[in-house]
Design brief:
CATH architecture of one domain: 2-Layer Sandwich
Order of helices and strands: HEEHEHEH
Helix content: 40-55%
Structural class: alpha/beta
Strand order of the largest sheet: 1-2-3-4
Radius of gyration: 22 Å
CATH class of one domain: Alpha Beta
Oligomer: single chain
CATH topology of one domain: Transcription Regulator spoIIAA
Shape: globular
Number of helices: 4
Mean pLDDT: 81
């Protein structure tokens, strides 16, 4: 390989990078807005989430989480029956909820996890932590 070939590849590479369009500053949502329901009965709250629980939806879900935590429940049940996707951001939100409720003397259980969300919880060995 001659020096001219190496230089030419470097020029082509730089040209390709410089011609690449800039990423959009705000694009379409990656995940649809989740459906979140919160029910309270006595000292217990249930948080039902439908759809993806990921980086694209966590801000919407955090509003419901804040509302639940502010009620100082003795027990919070997080129902993942209709959750299609759970990523590390969603797991982080559940762990944060668990820590905050536990600091208030309560407990958090996760129920009805299946498919991909259950696999994630098992890989992280969190199914034991959140068992009913």
């Amino acid at each position: 390989m001659s020096a001219s070939n190496v230089d030419m590849r470097a020029v082509i590479f730089r040209t390709d990078l410089s011609e690449r369009p800039a990423p959009p500053k705000s694009g379409p949502r990656l995940s649809p807005v989740p459906v979140v329901r919160s029910d309270r009965e006595g000292g217990e709250s249930t948080l039902q989430i439908e759809g993806a629980f990921d980086a694209g939806t966590v801000d919407d879900i955090n509003d419901a989480i804040e509302s639940v935590v502010s009620e100082h429940p003795h027990r919070v049940t997080v129902d993942l029956d209709h959750v299609s996707l759970l990523d590390s951001i969603g797991v982080g939100a559940i762990v944060s909820l668990w820590k905050r409720v536990r600091a208030q003397g309560g407990s958090v259980v996760v129920v009805h996890a299946h498919d991909q969300p259950l696999v994630v919880l098992r890989l992280l060995k969190l199914e034991v932590l959140f068992a009913a």
